[in-house]
Amino acid sequence: xxxxxxxxxxxxxxxxxxxxxxxxxxxxxxxxxxxxxxxxxxxxxxxxxxxxxxxxxxxxxxxxxxxxxxxxxxxxxxxxxxxxxxxxxxxxxxxxxxxxxxxxxxxxxxxxxxxxxxxxxxxxxxxxxxxxxxxxxxxxxxxxxxxxxxxxxxxxxxxxxxxxxxxxxxxxxxxxxxxxxxxxxxxxxxxxxxxxxxxxxxxxxxxxxxxxxxxxxxxxxxxxxxxxxxxxxxxxxxxxxxxxxxxxxxxxxxxxxxxxxxxxxxxxxxxxxxxxxxxxxxxxxxxxxxxxxxxxxxxxxxxxxxxxxxxxxxxxxxxxxxxxxxxxxxxxxxxxxxxxxxxxxxxxxxxxxxxxxxxxxxxxxxxxxxxxxxxxxxxxxxxxxxxxxxxxxxxxxxxxxxxxxxxxxxxxxxxxxxxx
Length: 420
Ligand code: EPZ
Prior knowledge:
- This protein is an alpha+beta fold.
- Helices cover 32% and strands 26% of the residues.
- It folds into two domains: 205 residues, Enolpyruvate transferase domain (UDP-n-acetylglucosamine1-carboxyvinyl-transferase, Chain, Alpha-beta prism); 207 residues, UDP-n-acetylglucosamine1-carboxyvinyl-transferase, Chain (Alpha-beta prism).
- A hairpin with a 2-residue loop joins β15 and β16.
- The N and C termini lie close together (8 Å).
- It binds ligand EPZ.
- Ligand EPZ binds next to α1, α5, α6 and α12.
């Protein structure tokens, strides 16, 4: 397993370009199963999760080609059973269920494992499929869904933690080929859901309201091939913005959508970070002393849970008390114990982390646990004095394209070490 070796204390300076959004491209790749015709997806990030999804589509019978940042696929003949081991390994693979149900009226996928950030149930996905007439059976770790007739229906998709992003995408995909009209109430409003809806509409689907809590899908008989460029990754953009602030550097982020980042940019400004927007680029630098802020993660357009860990690092560097409350996942504080090894003073009280910030961080070996916690540890290593070794970097490679190369280009002293 690879590690990243970081020598901290260097301000990041320069320009970075944001890649395509992981959380848009995964459901969009799954959506290509809805047609027998060729689809071309552009601005596909070079991530292990993308390679995984390509393997899953291949295991279902699709012909796929990943060349640079372009993904070409033709799902002319597909079967309804996904590869158990492949699907278990990546939570995002659950979003092949909707397309398989829509296209073949049946689907068999393995129950996606939970992960370190929470149980990750799929009850809302299954509730949605049942509202469209699907029969669901769970047996030996598989979910079997069959729907001789897929009929549009009205459903409320909100759960105990609010809407479901992939659940909304899944139901939109199945409903696109159902008979009649489906209305999803309490749909997720994330930009990635809008991107999926835009791709489906390019394929001939009839979806209105994506990005709002009420999405209406009028089923059609068939969908055709389409081309689509994936939106930029707002979480990657937020990660680099926070890294610039944490290292007291000045970074211009190109290709990001500032309109997808309102909550993050608002909190960064409140924390004393200067944000200058100039067309499609965002310049980030500190604006004097950092100030403590309180954050609660919420469904979009609230502060994103995927930026919580990264923001905690900035607050650990900020003199004063900051409170970060995680309302989306039940255990998304795995990074706290690792940050403590670098000298951060953070106490967990139920869903909240109380950060007593301002002490300088000093490098140490740390263990990555999940994708965003790993990004937080890299930022902490960049800001800390001395050397930090981040182990199990495969977590990072799932969701950040060439992050060490992009950071090196900004002046970071960071290198990847292949563990023998
Ligand atoms: C997507 O996961 C993202 N992943 C996650 O990003 C992101 O954190 C999450 O949305 C929330 O924004 C992808 O898009 C591949 P949810 P998803 O269903 O769709 C509960 C990252 O780091 N819930 O919106 O799986 C669930 O337990 C990853 O890039 C149910 O209760 O998340 C959670 O508490 C991490 N029942 C909340 O809803 C369900 O059927 C939100 O989950 C589904 C979800």
